[in-house]
Design goal:
Structural class: alpha+beta
Distance between the termini: 79 Å
Number of strands: 13
CATH superfamily of the largest domain: Efflux pump adaptor protein, beta barrel domain
Largest sheet: 6 strands, antiparallel
Number of domains: 3
Helix content: 25-40%
CATH class of the largest domain: Mainly Beta
Radius of gyration: 39 Å
CATH architecture of the largest domain: Beta Barrel
Length: about 280
């Protein structure tokens, strides 16, 4: 680079000298003090010197670029792994996987990306809800996401979904998606396995019941309700997920109805009972 820089400075100096000669020749030709041939020689020499300056500048820029190639800058911030080569080793450049020498690896620490796969049933469900307008698609807007590690419960890490792939993998029948989670304290480490949870539907009114109040009749879930005549009624219900230890009941119950929680094995539909409020701890 120093040699190219010196050549550039020399070319600029010669161009300045040729410019002065050309300007003097212009004044002399006006008084017929020099021949036309000498004037043409001075002006063409100046033009050639300008071209030499451009060539020297291009060579200097190329040398500067080659000098920058001797330093390696990471495109991201994070944690670097061990050095796979040391000073003095012979390395090869090029594209990774095509004969290039791997120097080391670096991983991002904040934020972290969690990749997960959704099956076809979930994909079709989310698309149907998006068309109905009851759930926002992750392709259109960032939706909240929650994560928990193998030794955690309650999905304590909060983030959002920022990517959904454009096709279903025909080999697995799944669609790849990605969640973004902050890791300011570096408590999480790249490569860990985790569970991710996203909203499976839009907002809807629902009731919450202790899970032990539910009974099963083959594939049908049901509860026993005490009507105004204090008689037990069999009531099929449609349930949802668990929230804070209580089961979501989407359909089958109305607010204010009395549901039997204890003693399900001792009651039958049509039996008259004396219901007591459930004592909560």
């Amino acid at each position: 680079f120093d040699r190219a820089d010196a050549e550039h400075q020399r070319a600029e100096s010669q161009a300045d000298l040729a410019k002065s000669d050309a300007e003097r020749a212009k004044n002399l030709i006006a008084t017929k003090a020099i021949s036309k041939e000498d004037f043409d020689t001075k002006t063409k020499t100046y033009t050639s010197a300008l071209a030499a300056v451009k060539s020297a500048r291009a060579a200097m820029d190329s040398a500067r670029l080659n000098l920058e190639f001797t330093e390696i800058h990471a495109p991201i911030g994070g944690r670097i792994s061990r050095a796979l080569v040391t000073e003095g080793n012979l390395v090869s450049g090029g594209v990774s996987g095509a004969g290039a020498t791997l120097l080391t690896t670096i991983v991002s620490l904040d934020p972290l990306y969690l990749y997960g796969d959704a099956d076809e049933r979930a994909i079709l469900k989310y698309r149907r809800l998006s068309k109905e307008g009851t759930r926002v698609s992750a392709r259109d807007k960032e939706i909240p996401a929650e994560m928990e590690l193998a030794d955690e419960t309650g999905f304590p890490h909060k983030g959002y979904m920022d990517f959904v792939d454009n096709r279903v993998d025909p080999n697995t029948g799944t669609l790849r998606a990605r969640g973004v989670f902050t890791n300011a304290d570096h408590s999480l480490s790249p490569g860990l396995f985790a569970r991710i949870r996203i909203p499976g539907s839009g907002k809807y009114p629902a009731l919450l019941l202790p899970d032990r109040a539910l009974g099963s009749d083959q594939a049908q879930k049901f509860v026993y309700v005490v009507n105004a005549e204090k008689k037990v009624e069999f009531r099929p219900v449609k349930i949802g997920p668990m929230i804070d230890g209580l089961r979501v009941v989407k359909e089958g119950l109305k607010p204010g109805e009395q549901v039997i929680v204890e003693g399900l094995l001792r009651v039958r539909p049509g039996v008259v009972v004396e219901a007591k409020p459930l004592e909560t701890k």
